Amino acid sequence: MIGRTVTVAIALFWVVMNVLLWRAEFGGGRETLAEVPMDTVLDRVLDAPDNSVLVLRHRGRLVGQLRWNPSITEAAPEGDASAGVVEGMVRAPLGHAVDVDLNLFGDTPSTRWRVTAHMDLLAHRAWSTFTVQLMQRPASWQVIAKAGDDDIRLRFEEGKTSWEQKFSAKDLADPGAWLAGPYAALLPGGFKAFTSGFASKKAGAGLDWSAHNDWLRVGQNRVRVYRVRAKLFDKHEAVAYFSRAGEVLKVVLPDGLVLANEALPNLGKE
């Protein structure tokens, strides 16, 4: 009798502990959607130990690949400062750097693009430098901006032809106006149509970010993730899913564009 009682007690204890562990891992009902501070998500994403390689699909069709690579910048070593430092350990973090490399596939040279971007962030996540380059052989366009510098530089190269144009950051308040002027001839075709009716003041006012704990189904399993939702230009919406370690898992963009982690390609097939 005592042995049976002990066995039942152990079984109940095992069941209760498993239920509690499951609730701690997956939460209960709507609790999994608890709001999370954006700073928490940003810290995880910028401190992610690995880069993220994502495939880009448009309405189910493969159209490109993107590599997202955040890193921690650190102070240069002084003297023999490397002594006693464990490999992989950051000595004195100064901020972060983010590199993005996007390749857009196409059936013709005019539809094949490569876009690279680099941004340096200070310790408090304020940007210090930003560079983006668009390449479509044999031409390339490069935009360079520095915090505190009112001038933004635009460089163009095509074979032996090259030039550089500067314009004021204030011009960005109304891109439709400066694209209608002489700057239109300096940019790749299609950009004028893309920015038609766009006003950055409206975009800034309509940008609404929120982050929540959530879960994402991967095959037969589900994993805990951060879900970040952003409302763009008062009418479009983008949703991004990040692992708890900060890796980019999936990004859903307007017009049927979906970025899905290369290791989990089925996430992009909807």
What are its keywords?
270 residues, alpha+beta, 13-stranded antiparallel sheet, 44% strand
Largest sheet: 13 strands, antiparallel
The structure class reads alpha+beta
Order of H and E elements: HHEEEEEEEEHHHEEEEE
Average of pLDDT: 76
List the total number of helices: 5
What helical percentage do the residues reach?
10-25%
Give a count of the beta strands, DSSP E runs of length 2 or more: 13
Quaternary assembly: single chain
Strand content: 35-45%
As laid out across the biggest beta sheet, the strand order is 8-7-6-5-4-3-2-1-13-12-11-10-9
Short structural description:
The chain is of the alpha+beta class and 270 residues long. The protein has helices at residues 2-26, 38-46, 175-180, 191-194, 200-206; strands at 52-58, 61-74, 93-104, 113-122, 127-136, 139-146, 151-158, 161-168, 208-218, 221-232, 236-243, 248-253, 257-261.
Please give a structural write-up.
- Helices cover 19% and strands 44% of the residues.
- It has five helices and 13 strands.
